[in-house]
Amino acid sequence: MNKIIEFAKEQLVNVTDQHDFFHAQRVAQMAIEIYRREVKVVHQHDEDMLLAMGYLHDTLAHHQEDEAYIETVQSLLAEESFTPGESSEIIRVMKHFAKFRNSLHKEAPLSFLGRCINDADLLDDLGAIGIARIFSYGAKHDQPLYDPENRNNSVQYFYNKLLQLDQYMSTLTGTKVARQRIEFMRTYLVQFWADWEVDLPDSLK
User: Which keywords does this chain's UniProt record carry (predicted)?
Assistant: First the structure.
């Protein structure tokens, strides 16, 4: 598995948006946590599949589904003892994310392991990390923090997408974690608007 992790790191080393290596690492780890809570019996090989899917899930998006790149990944997976069928499933997940990146309406049905990856990927948009990613993205793309006359602002993204993400989870665990993280974001927004309006609490008077 170390070869796959190092390969993913090489592929994502120059990625400066929110789909960098550390995002891939969090997705892999979260997918395993989801899997462990969803199944009655944990299989190590399933977890190996999830690690490979998680670390590689965003890499194909940077190669525009280049067949030579896919062949490179297939060779790497074979070296790590994945069967041709397992390799095909991992690459299918990669193609899924390359095609439907940033889209909530992902048409292609995924396997159970693929759904664990999908939920883990969406969960990285939520909670404390999600808030940090929103403002990082906004700064990179010259979006205002908030502007009531310009809906293309960072805070609006909470309302346009993120606060509804629990509806797009495909596992029970993913739904529970999403709702917990959304509640945290709602609490943050209450404080944001209080700060924006310079509404100091009575306790400070």
Answer: Hydrolase
Phi (first) and psi of residue 170, to 5 degrees: -115, 5
Q: What are the pLDDT digits (tens) for 64-106? A: 667 888 899 999 999 999 999 999 999 999 988 887 765 565 5
Residue 151 is classified by DSSP as S
31 and 83, same structural domain?
A: yes
**Residue of 197, 132, 177 lying closest to 158 (CA atoms):** 132
Q: Are residues 91 and 157 in the same domain?
A: no
pLDDT of residue 101: 64
Rounded to whole angstroms, the Cα distance separating 200 from 13 reads: 43
Q: Angle at CA 18, nearest 5°, toward 13 and 23? A: 70
